[in-house]
Design goal:
The chain has five helices and eight strands; from the N terminus they run E-E-H-E-E-E-H-E-E-H-E-H-H. The chain is α/β, with parallel strands linked by helices and 158 residues long. The chain is globular, with a radius of gyration of 16 Å. The chain starts with a strand and ends in an 11-residue tail after the last helix.
Amino acid sequence: VRVARIFNTFGPRMHPNDGRVVSNFINQALQDQPITIYGDGLQTRSFQYVSDLVRGLIALMNGDYSQPVNIGNPDEYTIKDFATMIQRRVAGTKSQIVHLAATKDDPSKRKPDITVARREINWSPEVSVATGLTKTIDYFRNELKVHGTFSPIINSGT
């Protein structure tokens, strides 16, 4: 048995209406809608690209380590900085960042400690968040061309 603790993962083929911050922000920017942040946007999150998750899970399954292992990217971003990063990467967007009331029980920080993953399964993320976002935005842009519009579930705190 292997136990992986998976942190925020994104990439092409994620569902455009899953309600997570990555898909919400990208969809809002591609459709020139306000990019909605709940609270002041100073809460932090870490995001990993899907291929890094898959490599981590394979390394864990093929290894001998049987204790829980965090699989995630320790690069930490404030939600506000992450929204700005997406806004800048979606060329031509007219979207503005807006702040709404904070959600209840929104954690102020989420950042994986991947020390065990590095030591026990020789794993760390390889794809930068910036590179992954470019690929994910391209995928969502193409999906939007095919399907016309998305109606994201707005929940930008996770």
